[in-house]
Structures are given as structure tokens and as C-alpha cells.
Amino acid sequence: MAWIRSKGRALVAPEVLWLLGLCVPMGGLGVAAIVGGPLPTTENDFFAPGTQPHGLNTAVQSVQECMSCHGNFDDLHEPFRPWAASMMGQASRDPLFHAALTIANQDAAFAGDLCLRCHAPNGWLEGRSTPTDGSLLSGVDLEGVNCNFCHRMVDPIHNPGIDPAVDATILSNLTDVPTMPHSGQFVIDPEDRRRGPYDLGDFQYHEWLQAPFQSTSQMCATCHDVSNPVFEKQPDGTYMPGAFDTPPASYSPYDQFPVERTYSEWSQSSFASGPVDVGGRFAPNLVMGVSSCQDCHMPPDPGVSCFFGDYREELSTHQFRGGNTWMLNAIRNLYPDSETFLTDTSVSLAIMQSENLLAEASDATLTQDGSDLIVRVTNYSAHKLPTGYPEGRRMWINVKYFDGSDTLIDERGAYDDETALLSTVDTKVYEAKLGISTTLAPIVGKPAGESFHFVLNNEWIKDNRIPPMGFTNTGFDAVQSAPVAYTYADGQHWDDTTYDIPSGAVRAEVKVYYQTASREYIEFLRDENTTDTKGVTMYNEWVASGKSPPVLMDDVSITIETPCLADTNGDGVVSPADFSAWVAAFNTMAPQCDQNGDGLCTPADFSAWVSNYNAGC
């Protein structure tokens, strides 16, 4: 039998696992015994290179060590308050995370270890991620991804003469060094030496090192490219479990099942090659345009980061703005402000900044083509739109038609704020849907097809999210991010949707919305949680916070030119040929059949067509 050896551990080669699955219905993997139950994974299955628990000489320090100098002097520019009012600052308090964590642990033993690495890295480094339900987290652990953690991160790929010299020693002392950052494979300075892009000169308040890593997108990849290490890529391109109680056969993200690929999407976009001029969006102070994750999510602005520090023209603000506009209010309902450091002002600013980011991410344009309305949504972000954790996230088009008295006569993509239900059958919804394959389903005891069980999912069923500038099918396929059940041409960073225009419409309003969590996903978290009440807690906060209210991204309108109804074939000329076209429309119940505007296709429309023909256009 073939084996792969990594740092002294014998691992089964992927091709051998695949053959075993073919020859012995995965019994050789010890999977047959787990039919209907959770995967028999251990912490070994979720092992990843990088700094390990108890690997620091000095523990990650509390944000309270930083706020006295870096907070409470400028709500917009200081690092502290904006960070606290971000999902980075509240990553370990997020009730949606905790509800999903419970189900992950139900589905695969110790799966929470993968989640806690990025949501509570301080606790993980101190060994408080066992048990993997987060029950031992406390104090600094609940500060999410805090200042000291990020500013002690070391580039795992050392660049001599560019990175701090001590980083080479730090990396050499690790048994396993990440070859590329992803899935919480971080390296942390064991000492409290705080890194950043500036030379601080004769600065005595804390140890510091000038390092470029904190300004790179590669740093963000550490937690914004996420793979499930339990599912390994097989020779036929599918994903199945590897050997249990054993570290992954490969630590490359592209050999593991892709869960999130935000960084990889960026890496294959035009933005990865240098600044892109997007007309002042995202970071108007960057006159050359935007490139890195930080440019858009931490847009620079003139100011100071320390109340006695140097004024800088391009100071990276610590907004960490994203798409979530309602979770901060839910967190305030669950935790006191004295613990979260949230305030009315900081939360309001954070929500406004995230809404602005979403509005800048896309443009919708409208054109009329005869009796059709064409809606084009263009993606100006540096990754897919939407991106990130796929479960429950979606973007959709809402179209409303009005008649001459300004009465609403038709709507596509209607959303009910009371029920949180979206009409999906008559509009375009941009989303990713993952699922469980027919091969895996009987093994894990779940139905095949679409699934929110993210640690069990092993296939992508749909991904029509709009790619960024610079998209190529070859490039995105190489990083497991190709469209699924949808098609985009190379270079296409927009999508067109055609809607038929109803009779009597003189105006159309089109809106594009984004939603962080669908009702279906929230109900899944509530109903599938069988070991604690965190799913119910999330559901209750979802209701109390407006049911993940959709955020308006684009709002455009168009005056409808009255179509020439007699020109049934749409060639711009009224002729006897249009009669044959009307008959064909009648036989197929096509929209062109309706000549009298009653919304129906009946024989009465023939008389109406004759009248329209005689009237001309």
C-alpha cells in the first residue's frame, strides 16, 4: 500500500483512499460503521500547520492593553472603537456562529476545532478550544480576532530582507510551517512583539517590528479561505473523507473541500495585480485605485492611530466593514456593552459603513428591448458578489412595474418583511448552494442534495455569484471557485437578467438587495440543533433584530416605451408575417399573445391583434 509521510506521520495517499472507496464501499476507511451517526473524527483530522496550542511564551494580550492609547479619542479613525463594532471584534460572540458550531460538532466530532481557530483564536492558542463547543472560552477569548493577535501574526512564507529577521527563527522552530495561509493556519510570534507597516523609531511603550504582512491580502487569507480538511479531493474530482484520526494527506487548500474562497477569488482577479480604478469606490483617498483587502475593508483616511501618535495621510481605518448589518444589535441584546465595548455611536457608524460598502459593490443598469426589460448587475468588488460563508447568504433582483396611474401592476422577486420569505421563482437570486453527494449520503445518514450541514457537505450544487474583474474560467477553476450550474465568459464581471414587460406598464423600478441570513438557514439552525439551545437563541435574536433585513445595494428606474403590440415578431415592421407570429405565440401561450392587456392569452386577443394591426405603430 502507498503511504505519504509528513513530519513523521504516515498518511494514506489520496488515490489509495479513492480506490478503497471503490473496492470496499469505504469500509476500509472505517466509515461503514458510522452510518446514520456523526463522523468519527478526532482532533487529528483537523490538525493544521502553524503555531499550536500552548506555543506562545506570552499569551495574546487583551484589547484593554491597547485601548488606553489607541481608543476613546476619535470614533472614526482610532483603531479601538471601529474594531469593537466589527464582526472581527465580535467573532466569538456571534450567536449565528455559536448555533452553527453546535451543529458542526453534532455532525462531526471535534469539528468545532476548525471553527474556533478563527472565531476565538486567543482561546484556541491557550488550549481552551477543547471541548470544541467553546464552553471553556472566557475573558480575552471572547474578544474575537483582537489587536494583539493580528499584530503578532508572522508571514509563513519568509521574505529575507523584507520581513523581520526574527521571523526566520520563529518559523524554523515550528514542526509544521504553513505553505500558504488558509483555514486558520496562522503563525504567531511567541513573544509580544507587535508588527505593523511603519517604522516607529525610538518608541519605548511596547516592543514593535516593522513588517509588511499586516498590509497584505495574504494575511486575510488565513481565515477567509476556508477548507474542510476531512474531505479530500479524489482523482475523479469529487471529495470524500480521508482516513480518520489522521492528519490530512495534504495541507494545501486545493486538495481539501472548499467552503469559502474569498481570498482565492481575489487572487484570480485584476485587483491582485495592482490598483484598479473603480471610480473612487471603496477608498476615495487612494487616487490610483484599490487592490488589497485592506484597501476596501479598512479604507485609509487622514488621521492618527494613537492619541499621541504621528498624523498620517493614509491611515488604515479599522472598520473591517463587510455585509453584516444586523448582528451587532443581536449581540447587544445578549451581552452587556461593558463587555463588548459597543456603543450607540459605534454601532450606528458600523452599520452605515457596511451599507455604504454594499452600495459601492455593484451597479444595476436597465435597458428595454421591445417587450423585455434587461437588468444588468455589475460587480465592482474584488471577489465574487456575494462572497464568503455561503450558507444563507444571497443577493437578488426586485422588479416592480407601474401603470399610468402609478399603480403597482406586477412585481418579481417580492420579499415579505413580515414572513422573511422571498419569491425566488420569478427572479434572479445570486447565491451558492452546497450539498451532500449520493455516495456520501447513506454513510452520514443525511439526504442527498442541498444541505446546510457545512461540515458534511462535499459538493457544490449551484454557484451563480458574479465574478470580479479579471475573471477567467481557467483561473477560478484552479482555485475551486468556478461557476456551478451557470456560465460566465472570461472577463465577464456582470450578469444580465431578462424580464418580460406586462401590458400597461409605463415605468419600472429595479432594486438589488443583499441578505446575510435567509429564513431557511435560520430555521435550520433552530431545528437541527439537538444538543443545546443556541439555535433557539439565534432564532429569537433573528426575530428581534428584524429577521436579517435585506440591505439595498442598487435602486434604478426606467420609463417604459410602449411596445408596438401588432409587431408580434419584433422585427420593427408591422406586416402580415406578424399574424403567423401571433398564432405561434397563441399556441405556446407566449407573452406576445396578450394583445388586449388583460394578462391572459385567449381567442379574444386575435380581435385585439387585428385592431392593433389596423391602427399601425
Please give the radius of gyration in angstroms: 27 Å
Low-confidence stretches: 1-33
Number of beta strands: 22
What is the share of helical residues?
25-40%
- Shape category: globular
Largest sheet: 5 strands, antiparallel
Give an overview of the whole structure.
This protein is an alpha+beta fold and about 625 residues long. Among the domains are: about 355-560, no CATH class; about 575-615, no CATH class. It is about 25% helix and about 20% strand. It has 20 helices and 22 strands. The strands form 8 sheets. Strands 12, 13, 16, 21 and 22 form a 5-stranded antiparallel beta sheet that branches. A 3-stranded antiparallel beta sheet has the order 6-5-7. Strands 10-11-20 form a 3-stranded antiparallel beta sheet. A hairpin with an 8-residue loop joins strand 8 (about 300-305) and strand 9. Helix 4 runs antiparallel to helix 18 and helix 17 runs antiparallel to helix 18 (about 535-545). The longest helix is centred in the middle third of the chain and has 18 residues, at about 345-360. The N and C termini lie far apart (about 80 Å).
